[in-house]
User: What shape does this take?
Amino acid sequence: MLAAGLSPEILAKYEPVIGLEVHVQLLTATKAFCGCANKFGAEPNTNICPVCLGLPGALPVLNEKAVEFATQAALALHCTVNERSIFARKNYFYPDLPKGYQISQFDKPIAEHGYIDVPAANGSMKRIGITRLHMEEDAGKSLHDGFADSNTRTYLDLNRCGTPLIEIVSEPDIRTPDEAFEYLTRLREILLFTGVSDCNMEEGSLRCDANVSIRPRGQEKFGTKAEVKNVNSFRFIRAALEYEIERQIEVVESGNRVVQETRLWNASEGRTYSMRSKEQAHDYRYFPEPDLPPLVLTADWILARERELPELPEARRARMISEYDLSEQDARTLTASREFADRFEAAAKTAKNPRRVANVLLSEVGGRLKALGLEQEQSPVSMQGIVLAADLLDDGKISSKQLKQLLDTSFEKNEDFTQVYEREKPQQITDTAALEKLIDEVIAANPKQVEQYKGGKKTVAGFFVGQVMRASKGQANPALLNELVTKKLDA
Ligand code: ADP
Ligand code: MG
Ligand code: ZN
Assistant: This one.
């Protein structure tokens, strides 16, 4: 929010237009054009060589794995992969770029014309176009903090020089911060499923620049855009866009013009700052990279990459919903990562009722993990434990109350559910006479509900089951209890 605070009426006069440029580091073992290790967190300036430092005479050799990953990402994003693309030099001076240029692709990228479908505000799906996907190399890193003399010096870590990247440029099709968030969420999910990147924003393996403009609603012509950089966490995408949209509306409402510029998002202050205006913008003097031949891919090779693609998140969700009778929300949570979905499906296949496995996994175990701020990997309950719990519930061998108690113990003692269950084998009341006695008491105490039931409201049976279950301290055998309650009420 800006200090001034614009009224909803004024905000509604304008339509935001957003296009995202996303850089993604590829998970290759080695760098894009040399044999140096491509890994985050190594001792500074240890994974470097004459090629990635651009020393005179060193020649780049293209990493085939990087091309495979770029192609797979492109295909997963519905892009057309070009059989011939060209590497180009993008020239600029910056301390973290010792070569003085970056190898990138310019007018002939490896892929174009893709899309991602995102949910729109009206509940339907909206298609966001992808203009292009191209390959390039990363630059090094300037370290401005953390040294005793950081106030007078900047240190350089060149390990990242030459890391293979893909840049994915969207069409200016996005209209709200929510759509931008959805686009990025789905993009990340698709890339994670494809396995080409770990998409870790904190470590910089997925970076997003947001281009934003506003126009009066109804006007076709786009307004002047600003590019917001440095939005390096998923949490901030909406906030950064909302801020920038309001800032531009305020500029226009006060009779001024939005200037084309690059702005930096400052997360601690929750605002953007001007970094450089278009007048100072770079002229990159792109030209074809003389040290690399055109990249030529055969149709067969591209087809082979397409065949290697795993089932992608959207398709997988649709299949899981119908195969396991899951809700949309549960399917979304279960496909948060390919590994999680794989683990669930492997478990679900061994259980009697997959939907019940999803319930125990997400609501019962997931709820407890969330309350404790733990990740799935830190769960004391194994998938085997979850399947056991689901089967016990399904067979009516434990009640849901007993499940909760067993899981509480499991979390308290950091023991798997299987162990806790073996030890505690909770009591169950399967004695018909004893249960009937409890049911009679509850029926006698609730004449109004009995009347409702007799009047045709059969769902009231659930109320009686709940009351008796409570009276039995959760120990009533659920299947038997259900049967007896209906029998009594129908009598
Ligand atoms: P530039 O040459 O300034 O990099 P591009 O045409 O390459 O601009 O577009 C960069 C990104 O900005 C793309 O994602 C595109 O969709 C987006 N974009 C282009 N024009 C606008 C605009 N007027 N408002 C918002 N985004 C825009
Ligand atoms: Mg651009
Ligand atoms: Zn190297």
About this structure: The chain has a mean pLDDT of 92. The chain has three domains: 8-300, 313-424, 432-490. The longest strand covers residues 125-137.
